[in-house]
Design brief:
heterodimer, A: 320 residues, alpha/beta, Rossmann fold, two-stranded antiparallel ribbon, 8 strands, globular, B: 326 residues, 2 domains, seven-stranded mixed β-sheet, five-stranded mixed β-sheet, 14 strands
């Protein structure tokens, strides 16, 4: 049995439990707005994180709970953020779509599709100029591959040979629409990479070790001055696009097929020690349970915070 | 260095000063390196600082400003150029949704110390997609600081403040002023963001202006002085922070206010200035607040049409006379 794999399993189980808690808290009226749950995508976040240095930069999307937690945000501060608590990771000013843990180099979750790919290129440019050996990783959905910022970022990162890794979480659906019906190529990210002279691979995004190894190769290449890589990780959402989407447009057989390849099941089988995995599950459930209790007990967001942190001096003054 | 320099030379001078002072300052934009800028506002930078500090980009406004944002969040102080301010619309997501919001929506976890420079405004016959004055677009977005200098010395001083600012600054250089001349900036010159200046003292009426409308207002004031009407011209220099105190102090002396702005009347920055003065300076006023702004049409190409739409010395002079007689 691999201790590392068991650890990755437990990390994924914590994310899965947090996503379920987010769903249940929403249904209980304790989370407002919307959520875009990443249950099913855990292997991408956890596998990538296992391959990265703590100071490597990560940029994620509005479906980003898994990346925040994988990089070091606690389930408690994420759930508190969703529940509009003062202890939220963004103090209640971000919400589900903007989870950020800058102290862990997780530089944000962005809710305008594709917008963060140029940012990741910029962080990679900064790392290159400062000579730090860091890489910058942008995680994005299949739908983002049809927006201009994706193409501008890949081209710039390629011509400047930046230490960037572009990881597409291809969950087969652009919101409610099958990605294949709105995209001219079968692999929406990987098939575009050659247009920018970039290497790409399509991988099983539900196998945490496969993801870890692919991201490790790409990061090594980036650190060695070899430039960016595109990774297309095929995965599947267990929930709909957002809280209001029951995802009835997905064929039953397809759902069953992907649930049978749930990244937690894949990892459980690979660990091979059922008792050890069950124990990891119990620890993860306890972690999430404590997080929910703490977030529920936390004070609500402080209205005074609404008029802070527009500017670097902490304030919001716009006039004399 | 010459005692008198052009506004265009001042841009390159201001950038060079900051790049010499701080190695984390890097420039990126289209044609800014070896070509030294389509407006020749980056002359000498590539030669002095090389390709590691001055980066030519593809025509990719989203990548330019998005990369600047990512670099600013991770230890650099990038200065991005968007060639014409009209092209800000191509990367408006970054200026409306990303850069001004990321610090706030992360609860203060990150800062974005960057400058986006852009050539703004009309009067040169570039037509409707290369001539707009769009400073009012930026004013609609909380989280951006906005500078728009009118003189070469202010270009250098405000650029120094913008580059050193830990907040994002949108820096409007006016195309119509690039060839204008003025005293060179002294060494270490810095004009803090959000400090208006009285460009010409007067007693009868306050004219608030910005960038290109400052010389227009000064020319009108000069002509009116011969007729015994003494207008005070306030150069705002920045829209955010907005130095409304200097405006109110001036109106306290003159009791009349005319606002001259190049952006269209609809949604123009003068509306915000007028609102604040009406709210907080109502008892200072002896006349209605008036605005000379661009007509609410796309900017046309031909000279007579462009002049019909934009603020001119004649329009300002007529408006001042009307207000002085009110």
């Amino acid at each position: 049995m691999s201790a590392e794999l068991l650890d990755l399993y437990e990390r994924m189980a914590v994310i899965r439990g947090t996503e379920k808690a987010a769903h249940d808290l929403f249904m209980a009226g304790l989370v407002k707005g919307t959520t875009h749950l990443a249950a099913g995508h855990e292997a991408v976040a956890v596998g990538a994180s296992a391959a990265l240095r703590p100071d490597d930069y990560v940029f994620a999307t509005y479906r980003g709970h898994h990346h925040a937690i994988a990089r070091g945000a606690t389930p408690e501060e994420c759930l508190a953020e969703l529940m509009s608590r003062d202890t939220g990771v963004c103090r209640g000013k971000g919400g589900s779509m903007h989870l950020t843990k800058a102290s862990a180099s997780m530089l944000g979750s962005y809710a305008i599709v594709g917008a963060h790919l140029p940012m990741a290129a910029g962080a990679a440019w900064s790392a290159k100029l400062r000579g730090t050996g860091q890489v910058a990783v942008a995680f994005f959905g299949d739908g983002a591959t049809n927006i201009g910022a994706f193409h501008e970022a890949l081209n710039l990162a390629a011509v400047w040979r930046l230490p960037a890794v572009f990881v597409c979480e291809n969950n087969l659906y652009m919101e409610y629409t099958p990605i294949g019906t709105v995209t001219a190529v079968p692999n929406p990210a990987a098939d575009r990479a050659p247009a920018y002279g970039l290497p790409a691979e399509v991988i099983d995004g539900n196998d945490v070790l496969v993801v870890r190894d692919a991201v490790a190769r790409a990061a090594q290449r980036a650190r060695g001055g070899g430039g960016p890589t595109v990774i297309e990780a095929r995965t599947y959402r267990h929930y709909g696009h957002s809280r209001t989407d029951p995802a009835r447009y997905r064929p039953e057989g397809e759902v069953a097929e992907w649930l049978a390849r749930d990244p937690l099941l894949v990892a459980r089988k690979a660990v091979g020690d059922g008792a050890a995995v069950d124990a990891a599950d119990r620890r993860a459930q306890a972690t999430v349970r404590r997080a929910v209790e703490a977030a529920r007990a936390a004070p609500p967001a402080d209205p005074a915070q609404a008029l802070t942190d527009v500017w670097a001096d902490g304030g919001a003054a716009w006039r004399t | 260095m010459a005692d008198v320099i052009t506004y265009r030379e001042a841009v390159a001078e201001g950038l060079a000063r900051e790049m010499r002072r701080d190695p984390s300052v890097v420039c990126l934009g289209e044609d800014i390196g070896a070509a030294e800028g389509v407006f020749k506002t980056t002359v000498g930078l590539f030669k002095e600082f090389g390709p590691e500090r001055v980066w030519d980009t593809p025509i990719s406004e989203q990548a330019i400003v998005g990369a600047a944002m990512g670099a600013a969040m991770t230890g650099l102080r990038p200065v991005a150029e968007i060639m014409f301010s009209d092209f800000l619309a191509c990367c408006w997501d970054y200026l409306a949704n990303e850069i001004p919001k990321v610090r706030y929506m992360t609860g203060g976890q990150v800062t974005v110390p960057l400058v986006v420079r852009t050539a703004n405004g009309g009067g040169l016959g570039f037509g409707a997609q290369h001539s707009q004055a769009v400073e009012n677009w930026a004013l609609a977005v909380p989280g951006l600081k906005i500078a728009a200098p009118s003189t070469p010395a202010d270009v250098v001083g405000l650029l120094a403040a913008a580059v050193r600012s830990d907040d994002p600054v949108l820096f409007f250089e006016h195309k119509g002023l690039f060839a204008s001349r003025g005293p060179a900036a002294p060494p270490d010159h810095l004009v803090p963001l959000g400090e208006a200046t009285v460009a010409r003292p007067g007693t009868d009426l306050t004219v608030v202006a910005l960038a290109s409308t400052v010389p227009v207002a000064l020319a009108a004031a000069e002509a009116l002085a011969r007729d015994g009407i003494f207008a005070e011209v306030v150069d705002l220099r920045c829209l955010i922070p907005l130095d409304i105190r200097t405006v109110l102090e001036s109106v306290g002396r003159t009791s009349r206010l005319l606002i001259v702005e190049e952006n269209p009347y609809q949604g123009g920055w003068g509306g915000t200035v007028a609102s604040l003065v009406a709210d907080e300076g109502f008892e200072l006023l002896d006349a209605p607040i008036r605005r000379v702004a661009a007509a609410c049409v796309p900017l046309p190409f031909a000279d007579p049409l462009e002049q019909r739409v934009m603020p001119t010395v004649d329009k300002v002079t007529a408006a001042v006379r009307g207000l002085a007689a009110y």
